[in-house]
Amino acid sequence: MPNRLAHETSPYLLQHADNPVDWWPWSPEAFEEARRRGVPVLLSVGYSSCHWCHVMAHESFEDPAVAALLNEHFVAVKVDREERPDVDAVYMEAVQAATGQGGWPMTVFLTPDAEPFYFGTYFPPEPRHGMPSFGQVLEGVRGAWTDRRDEVGEVAGRIVADLAGRSLAESLPEGDQRPPRPEELHAALMGLTRECDAVHGGFGGAPKFPPSMVLEFLLRHHARTGSAGALEMAGATCAAMARGGIYDQLGGGFARYSVDREWVVPHFEKMLYDNALLCRTYAHLWRATARDGAADGLGDLARRIALETADFMVRELRTDQGGFASALDADSDDGTGRHTEGAYYVWTPEQLRAVLGEKDAEFAATYFGVTEEGTFEEGASVLQLPETHGLVDVDRVASVRERLLAARAERPRPGRDDKVVASWNGLAIAALAETGVYFDRPDLVQAATDAADLLVRVHMDWQARLHRTSRDGTAGANAGVLDDYANVAEGFLALASATGEGVWVEFAGFFLDTVLVQFTAPDGTLYDTAADAERLIRRPQDPTDNATPSGWTAAAGALLSYAALTGSALHRDAAERALGIVTALGGRAPRFIGWGLAVAEAALDGPREVAVVGPPDDPATRALHRAALLGTAPGTVVALGAPGADAAAEVPLLMARPLVDGKPAAYVCRHFTCERPTTDPEELAERLRS
User: Fold this and answer.
1) Contact (Cβ atoms closer than 8 angstroms) between residue 444 and residue 308
2) Cis peptide leading into 607, omega within 30 of 0?
């Protein structure tokens, strides 16, 4: 019989709806039930494409004996971390503080007042590698709760007091909430240089994650300063990832991370946010290198990867309502009824021969690095481009790819988490809008517009407040958090620049006003949850960039761009105050504040403000618009409109911008000073190179 999760919309929660565990969703009623019964709460947090979440569910939550123990002595609460990042953040902070590490599934035991007192992540069904079994953990917690209740309460109280005493404001120099200076951004670059893997690209060792936000900083730093080292680090990392197994060599798109430092074997789940961020990064790498005639073909590679990743998102993640689904699972049926990680993606020489025949299979094995020994499990290989191939038969490569992709499509597909997350769709909108205009793909711009329409129609209420998620065109009950407002605003501003539709600037303004009112403290620091959101044991506040830009740094970037388009000193001041955390952390931990550093580059450069005026169908207007969008100056904002009051009403940057001698013109402003207008796209392009 299904449990309470059967009434939820989250695909992750629905995966547990038929467990024998009597799960509750996160709710006041669950904690009231724990008080009524006088039992502790088991909080289990995960997400639908989490491999070890699936493992623990199969081993423990589907076990009737474990379920009976849980149901009798606990109230079990299941949370999708992607729906409730606030709940996840608060208790993950406690787990990391107590154990020195974290991860998912996250397993936390709470009092009925939601105070944590015992922590862990994955627990096996039997004692293993020094870990107790999950059953032993349950018995131990039950015994402590029954026999030492006062001690448990004291522990929980100390943990909550410790969490409440942590303040990010202490990281900011008193009275010095300012963006980083040039020398501080250079110090961040030097820190990244020390951590860069000069052999394999990327930063640090295994596991190795795609550093999309750090790459954006490096590209912007190169644009502002001409630093060859910054561009070299960005280019080498992008090339290594594009040739590695972390990139899907057949269907496009990136896996979550590489388990090794060489980018060979990925953790196969594919997340919308990774692909949106990396699509934009590769498009910007092309923009930085294509006209420079990179000797190693880096510009051509960047163009291919940006377009293939965009096509992957539209083909595999787009929902019927026009939004983008959250993720594809790492696991799928391997053909024997077992769900195995990577089964959909890996190949053996025998499988190549079955699809391609002997000669083309031999060619494909060499080209993609498929060996008899394999690079993955049971002699299978992850497709990669182990070398920078010289002259190859392009038509033959295309034919091989097409046939392998068609054959792969016949395999059981990985599951898809089809909930639409506002924040990640904002990232996708920005990536698709820019990639579409760079490479003359209006279909991609339309896909971005459709997703933006969905966010307005379904995720936004009449007060311009955002719901974090939707599914099948119905909004979820979860309120948007800071990164939802910030990343949606960022996406809408990029879409406005790409299309010239000023209404997206207006919507972005609504969301950023909410950031100022609901998420900003009097001292200018930012919280992840709104002031009127559900109260947790701690109000989460994390400025560090991890898998995605933090809400804090994403807000700084969107506020800065909006201020440049509208002339709002209020939003500019808020952006500069928010960048104080980058000044504090950039030199110490540049890998974990990459987007903040990228925004700081834009603030230092201006950013440049470009108003393009002219009839929208005039080829001269389009040429100026394209030149503006391809400008490499960090964080350049672009407004496009016909001369007149209507366009200026939506985007104040267009105010009082007439044609020049009856011709379309571009106006470039920076630091409150505007240059003379130009009608020449080449001159405009030159002005927008730092």
Assistant:
1) no
2) yes
Contact 59, 51 (CB under 8 A): no
Facing residues of 421 across strands? 469
- Give yes or no for a contact between 574 and 552, defined as CB atoms under 8 angstroms apart: no
> What string of DSSP letters covers 296-314?
T-HHHHHHHHHHHHHHHII
Q: Where are the beta strands (DSSP E) in 298-377?
A: 325-328, 331-333, 339-341
3-state secondary structure of 412: coil
- Separation between Cα atoms, residue 184 and residue 603, nearest integer Å: 13
User: What residue type is 575 in one-letter code?
Assistant: A
Q: Report the C-alpha gap between 184 and 280 in whole angstroms.
A: 26
d(CA 576, CA 179): 6
Q: What stretch of H or E contains 189?
A: helix 182-195
pLDDT per position as a tens digit, 370-421: 999 999 988 899 999 977 556 678 899 999 999 999 999 999 999 999 999 9
List all residues 6 or more positions away from 558 whose beta carbon is below 8 Å from its beta carbon: 486, 487, 489, 490, 493, 508, 511, 512, 515
H or E stretch at 475: strand 474-475
Distances from the Cα of 465 to the Cα of 482, 484, 515, 535, angstroms: 11, 10, 10, 18
Share of the chain residues as helix, strand and coil, in percent rounded to the nearest 5 = 50, 15, 35
Q: pLDDT tens for residues 312-338?
A: 999 999 999 999 999 999 988 777 778
Q: What torsion do the CA atoms of 177, 183, 189, 190 make, to the nearest 10 degrees?
A: -120
The one-character DSSP state at 317 is I
Q: Do the beta carbons of residue 369 and residue 384 sit within 8 Å? A: yes
> Which residues make Cβ contacts (< 8 Å) with residue 565, sequence separation at least 6?
493, 496, 505, 609, 637, 639, 651, 652, 653
Rounded Cα gap, residues 442 and 436, in angstroms: 6
Count other Cβ atoms within 10 Å, centred on residue 73: 18
